[in-house]
Design a protein that fits this description.
The complex is a heterodimer. Chain A is α+β, with helices and mostly antiparallel strands. Chain A has one domain (5-122): 2-Layer Sandwich (Beta-Lactamase). Helices cover 44% and strands 25% of the residues of chain A. Chain A contains three helices and five strands. Chain A has a five-stranded antiparallel β-sheet with strand order 2-1-5-4-3, sandwiched between helices. Chain B has a single domain (5-156), classed as Globin-like, CATH 1.10.490. Helix content of chain B is 82%, strand content 0%. Chain B has helices at 5-16, 20-28, 30-49, 52-58, 64-81, 88-104, 108-128, 133-166, 170-182. In chain B, α1 (5-16) packs across α6 (88-104), α3 (30-49) packs across α7 (108-128) and α6 (88-104) packs across α8 (133-166). The chains are: A alpha+beta, B mainly alpha. Chain A binds chain B through residues 30-33, 46-47, 50-51, 53-54, 57-58, 60-61, and chain B through 165-169, 171-172, 175-176, 179, 183.
Chain lengths: 123, 184
């Protein structure tokens, strides 16, 4: 069955517009190709996709090397905001960009829900 | 990134226009090739030895220089004989030589100019011995193919190491190189 990219785009748009302090999101393949994205203006979708896949893959490798078990997500915090990468099954990676003011409990819960929706649409 | 030496050999033969005529010419002068091989080994290692870093690598272990010289003579002669008509055995041996270069640390930056020196010296020797000028062209072409194997070995080994350590897919790795190179 073909992937419904329109629905993927809708899920991302809904997530970005309804979750407080979320600035952007993307879903990409492990090869770093974009499946759908809703990113802030000025961000290069191709580059963001490649970096997201690279980071999650490297994170999983580090997790294995350091005996941390299966990695659920990667969290990168900067003074301008946070980036969260979540594995979305074997064939996709979910990237979320949020501001520093984001309530992390709410954000994690929303990510969990959205990942479930994305998986349902993808597989 | 698993290179198939046979396929790579065919690709490089096409790219360099290494022809059947070149093969016949090289075969015909195989004895001459063997006769001048030790002299060419001298030129090759004299050139490399001038570099402090290379000199250290070449003389790192006892007997290494001697073994390398023997390998050079064999390698040089094989460019004329083609081993199995420049087939699978030839390609696999070139690939193996490339890997050994990576293991020892003799990079393309050292081998390329050293090989150019050899081709230049072959040209001079050719005139002294009254050999046809076309022989130099044929030898230059097969030399370029052998160099391509050495360079490719560096790329393949480096890439394989990165993929192994990061868990990245080959597609992702190529994409990162493309986007990274695009931003330079």
């Amino acid at each position: 069955m073909a992937i419904n990219t329109e629905k993927l785009g809708y899920i991302l748009q809904n997530f970005v517009s309804t979750t407080s302090d979320v600035q952007g999101a993307a879903i990409v393949t492990p090869d770093g190709l974009p499946l759908a994205s809703n990113l802030p203006g000025g961000m290069d979708e191709e580059r963001v996709s490649a970096m997201s896949a690279a980071m999650l893959s490297l994170g999983e490798r580090i997790g294995k090397e350091l005996a941390r078990g299966i990695i659920d997500r990667l969290y990168v915090e900067g003074d301008e905001g946070i980036s969260i990468l979540t594995s979305c099954g074997q064939d996709a990676v979910f990237l979320v960009l949020a501001g520093r003011a984001a309530k992390q409990g709410v954000l994690m819960l929303e990510i969990k829900r959205t990942v479930s929706d994305l998986k349902h649409t993808l597989f | 990134m698993n290179l198939n030496p046979d396929d790579f050999m065919s690709l490089m033969e096409d790219r360099t226009n290494f022809s059947d005529g070149d093969k016949i010419l090289l075969n015909k002068h195989a004895d001459w090739g063997l006769a001048i091989a030790p002299t060419m080994a001298n030129h090759f290692y004299k050139y490399l030895g001038r570099d402090v870093e290379m000199s250290a690598i070449l003389n790192d272990k006892e007997g290494r220089m001697h073994r390398l010289r023997e390998t050079f003579v064999q390698w040089f002669h094989e460019m004329f004989t083609g081993m199995d008509n420049w087939g699978t055995a030839y390609a696999e041996r070139r690939w193996r030589i490339g890997l050994v270069h990576v293991q020892i640390g003799i990079g393309p930056q050292h081998v390329v100019p050293a090989m150019a020196t050899v081709v230049h010296e072959v040209g001079k020797q050719l005139k002294i011995d009254g050999q046809p000028e076309e022989l130099k062209d044929a030898l230059s072409r097969i030399c370029m193919i052998d160099l391509a194997f050495i360079e490719q070995a560096y790329v393949e080994v480096s890439s394989a190491a990165v993929l192994k350590e990061t868990g990245w897919t080959e597609g992702l790795f190529r994409r990162l190189i493309a986007t990274g190179a695009g931003s330079m």
